[in-house]
Specification:
Layout: H1 12-26, H2 35-47, H3 54-62, H4 85-108, H5 122-136, H6 141-151, E1 153-155, H7 156-162, H8 168-180, E2 184-189, E3 195-200, H9 202-205, H10 207-219, H11 239-249
Antiparallel strand pairs: 1-3, 2-3
Length: 251
């Protein structure tokens, strides 16, 4: 545990200001998320095992997802969503203060700065579990993960065909979030037409046995328990398929 005092949190007025900025951005660019989503996205970035720079994550959040080519210590170029440089600078200032607050809170709760867990307490264990849930939270994320468990590498069009009911827009959004969290990686082949493939990262692959254990736990539930009717938007691949695939990769 650390005795480092926490930085002052954002005031209600500053949170309202962030909401107003995001609302304004939404007038110029589609799919600008609300602050509640941005805050969860920020927390997931803080929790990642590697340092993620604004040039990488801001386009995922507020633009087309393409990483910006920015020299070290150089200012970010103006993103299309922002009205002017002053608005972008103010957003980044408030964002950084929230980042520092979350990072200091994790350190105060026993989470080392390098991302390695300290001694868990009830408080930081619950927070860490919540952070994990945020990574897989989303209507289609688990369906996407099970598709990648079974096939290892999938083209975007293959995922689209394999998941009935998901729109192209939603598939892009869910893949971007999984990519931002370090669970999925995108492979772009320099071909005409361009070919884009997705696969799990090494860290993402370790989710396979974790989810299998969760399914085993669900199978042992009392007879009176029934999953919510809305919990599964589409059938997942066979549980045994994911277990067998994982076993074959570890022989």
């Amino acid at each position: 545990m650390t005795d480092t005092p926490l930085p002052p949190g954002l005031s209600n007025d500053e949170l309202d200001e962030l909401d107003q900025i995001l609302t304004d951005l939404g007038q110029r660019v589609e799919e600008i998320p609300q602050w509640e989503f941005c805050d969860g996205f920020l927390t997931a970035l803080v929790c990642m095992r590697r340092r993620v720079e604004p040039a990488e994550y801001l386009p995922m959040l507020l633009d087309d997802g393409a990483v910006l080519e920015v020299a070290a210590d150089a200012p970010l170029p103006l993103l299309p969503a922002f009205q002017d440089a002053a608005q972008q600078a103010r957003f980044l200032e408030l964002w950084q203060r929230r980042w520092d607050e979350v990072a200091h809170q994790r350190a105060a709760d026993g989470q080392a700065p390098d991302g390695k867990p300290g001694d868990y307490t009830i408080k930081n264990a619950a927070q860490s579990a919540q952070n994990v849930i945020r990574v897989v939270e989303g209507r289609w994320k688990l369906v996407i993960l099970f598709q990648l468990f079974d096939s290892n590498i999938r083209r975007f069009s293959e995922l689209e065909r394999a998941i009935p009911g998901i729109s192209q827009k939603m598939l892009i959004q869910q893949l971007r979030q999984l990519e931002a969290d370090g669970v999925v990686t995108r492979i772009v082949h320099a071909e005409v037409p361009p070919r884009v493939e997705y696969r799990l990262t090494d860290w993402g692959q370790t989710l396979c046995p974790v989810l299998d254990k969760l399914l085993t736990w669900a199978e042992s539930a009392p007879a009176a328990w029934r999953p919510p009717a809305s919990s599964a938007p589409a059938p997942l691949p066979s549980t045994h398929g994911s277990r067998e695939a994982h076993a074959s990769r570890n022989r």
